[in-house]
Every structure is written in C-alpha cells, then in structure tokens.
Design a protein that fits this description.
CATH superfamily of the largest domain: Glycogen Phosphorylase B
Strand order of the largest sheet: 3-2-1-4-5-6
Number of strands: 11
Shape: globular
Low-confidence stretches: none
CATH class of the largest domain: Alpha Beta
Number of helices: 13
Mean pLDDT: 96
CATH architecture of the largest domain: 3-Layer(aba) Sandwich
Order of helices and strands: EHEHEHEHEEHHEHEHHEHEHEHH
Structural class: alpha/beta
Length: 354
Amino acid sequence: MVKILLLRLRLIGDVVFTTPLIAGLRRRHPDAHIAYLVEPDAAPIVRRNPHLDEVILAPKRPGLGRLTDDLALARRLRAARFDVAIDLHGGPRSAWLTLASGAPMRIGYTIAGRSWMYTHVVARAPDLTPRHSVRNQWDLLAPLHIAEPTPAANPVEMAEDPAAAARVDARLAAAGIGPAHPLVVVHVSANNPFRRWPAGAFTTVIVRLAQREPGRRIIVSSGPSDAGAAARITADARAQLGSLAAAVPELGEFDLEEMRVLTGRAAVYIGGDSGPMHIASTTAVPIVAIVGPTLAERSRPWRGSGAFAEILDAGPLPCRPCHQRHCVPGDFRCLTGVSAERVIDAAERGMQQA
C-alpha cells in the first residue's frame, strides 16, 4: 500500500484550495493511505475530509517548544514510513518536515535555499500571476502524472460536522430564526488588512438589505483576525434600523465548522477575499465576493458554473494586483472603488437564484 503525506500548515483559504488535490490523489490511488499535516487553526477544514485516512496536527508553540514539537513530529513522520511527501506549503518548516519524513519521493516547489530538500521540484507561479491558487497547488501533482483539475470535476470540499450543525441550529432557534427567515451571512473581515472592505460600506449593505425585506436575518461575522469588527458593525446597523433591528441579530462569532454550517444554510454569502469565503465555496450558497488588491483569476470561488458567484472589484488599476504590504496611492482605491450599491444588487441577484 502506498503511503502519501500532504503538508499544508496554515491559512484557511490555502488549505481549502488543497482539497481538490486530495480528491484527485484518492481517485488515482484508491487504496493508498493519505495523511495530511496541518496546524490546529486550519485543521477543521480537513478533519472530516472523506478522502483522507489521517490528519496529523503540527503544534504551533513558540520558541523552544516549537523545536521540541518539531523533533517529535519528525520522529513520528519517519516512523510512519511514507512513500511520497508533497509540500503544498513551501515554507521553511514544512520543507524541513518534508525532508525529515524520510519519504523516498519528496515533491516541492523550486524555492531558493529549500529545493535541495526535495527529490522532485516544480516551478512555482509568481505571486501576482492571474492563475487560480488551486491550479498552482495542483502543479505539485505533475510528477505523479495526474490530469489538470476543473472546478466542476474537482471542487473544494469541507464536510459538515454534525455537532457544529446542532450548535448552529440551536443558536438560530434561540434567536427566533426559523425556515421563514432567509439568512444573509456577511463576513466583514480578512486576515490581511489590505483585503478589508470599509466597515461603513458593510453597514450600508446590511441596513439596505434589511430594509428591503425585514423578514431577512443578516448574520455578521469577523473572526479572530479582526476581533470586534462584527460586533461594531452589527451595533451600527441595528442603531440605523431602529424598529427593524431584529433583522440583524447579535449572535456573536462562529468557529470554522460552524461557519461551514451557517453558510450552507444561507440564501447568500457576502464577504471579501478571505478564508470564510472559500469555506462558503464548499457549499452551494450564492457568493458575492469583494476583491481588492488580489485578482479574481487567482482567488475567486472555485466552483462549477452552475453555482452563483459574482466577483466585484474596482476594475483595472495601475497598482493592482499588489503585494499587499503598502498602498502606493494611499487611498485603498481597489477596495473603496467597489460601491455598496453594486454589492446590494449582486446579493439580490444571488438570492433570486438560491
């Protein structure tokens, strides 16, 4: 039996982007043992993946604790005797763990100072290339001769957790939200601050969607990357709505498995280029994605043409795409150039198709 180790340590969206590759490997090697190494924060994405036999956690302690953990992890990987190790991450830690696994076939990107750790190297597309991240990850399967993916045949996946579903259903019921209330999920943050649409624009969208149909229930989330953003925007929207404030309930935050459930229950998902948007892509929910400094070709929802996904951006700009370290014009025009009216109109179109 062939034993395959996949390594992608972190970032929610990037781990989601590897899930088509997992299924592709399983189709090519139906009897293989496939393991996935990931840090705890992103583990919920793959924890229930039907194509994996094992999920291995890479602890994320700082300092000497990290060294101790990595040495123990290396011993565990070597003892498992993997035949193939594929470094989907490309960072120093994942490259070293790939080498430490002792797998006779080790696949990774051509990266200065690290390529020697692999037996097979694959050219890595430049960061700003207008090519989807799923395809960039899939390039690492080239030494295994697995055909190119398509969104319809190779979708992103995240299985629904029954325990998380029960928690979400209980929270919705406690808030008086039932089948008669169309759900609008609005994620107002992103791990990278260069991808955050202005809070005031989100508030405008929420207020107007609620005013158009008071029966809607608009659930706002932000997550740990921008703690407090959802609460602030919810409070502002409720203050503006007055007697219609019940349309924007104060439900607090949701973990990743709960977000997967919540978006699967929604009539539309609205958000920027962030991990939760890619989690939403694992469901059939209509998606309105607000893209700023990144290109839609690189990070749009990876799904078949039959599922609604509308990508909104500011159009061609001389500074877009960028490396998201410094706004050269200084006014974040790639984000402010997307109007609330465009988002509202796209959301309404999405809900008509839900």
